[in-house]
Amino acid sequence: MGEDPTDGTGHRACQAGVVEQYRERLSVPVSWWVIATAAVITLYVITAVPAGVIAGAAVGGIAAVLLLTLFTRYGGAVVAVDSEKLRAGRAAIEREYLGKVEPLSGEDARNAFGRDCDPAAFLVLRSYLPGAVRVEITDPQDPAPYWLIGTRHPDRLAAALTADSVARS
Fold first, then answer.
1. What is the pTM of this model?
2. CA separation for the pair 12, 8 (Å, rounded)
3. Which domain, by its residues, includes 104?
4. What angle do CA 148, 153, 159 make, to 5 degrees?
5. Is the residue at 8 inside a domain?
């Protein structure tokens, strides 16, 4: 059997003994996989009927590999919070530079990603995510005034960011 990745409290252990307080993979929804499967089958059929099974299999196989690669890369972004850092996609920032945290859902989240978005903000968004969290950045060297992170659980992510905050000096 595999080793339990949690520390017994439901938090995942990560590098150097630091415990993650929140972790979410921004994976694409099942409906996208169903639509992609239907598209691959359709491409196979419309190619195989006039050009043969081998041509259909080639076109369908290429489409399947491309969609698989695209979905796993696009949906592979991870949002994680531990006692030291916030990680969103490929970016990370120390918690000491985090200011006000605001969970957003519904119309507020849509507006935050649209009309109310600052062009200098750092964004990790996915069109299929219902919520977001806006995190103010207090680092004077950082050009981004805030991070806007798409999430399925804005209240849980905001709680992880405000709980056990690093004391700011």
1. 0.76
2. 9
3. 15-24+81-162
4. 80
5. no
